[in-house]
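Reading group handout, session on sequence-to-structure problems. Before we discuss, look at one worked example. The prompt was deliberately terse, the way you'd type it at a terminal:

> structure Plasmid mobilization relaxosome protein MobC

The input record follows.
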Amino acid sequence: MAERKAGWLRTRQSNVVGGREYRHVVKLTAEQELAVQAAARVQGVTVARLLIDSALKAPISTVSREDLTELFAATKLIAALGRNLNQLAKVANATGEVPPETMAAIAAVRQVFDRVNRLPRDLVGR
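And the output record:
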């Protein structure tokens, strides 16, 4: 099967003096081929790069674009919740009364906290 160019993380290996003189052919079952292609796609590298890095134990980034997007979204949500809580605290300090929407804001903070707490396990489990 033809290798598909990896996405935004693709970089070429540096040239070496005299070139690369050795070539290897690897035969896989259909299941192994699907697994190798999926792993390469998740890591944003070609199948050849995946096999080389795996054999040489080179560190491979395991954070995908989707994971980064989710982390940035969580960061923005936490910032928005912080602003809302600050506004509610300002009103409570000025008036001496807790605004009625405070409980909903606290519940939202708890939900986001639980999601952020689960995030490392979710990322490792992929």
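Points for discussion. First: Residues 65-95 form the longest helix (31 residues). Second: The chain has a mean pLDDT of 81.
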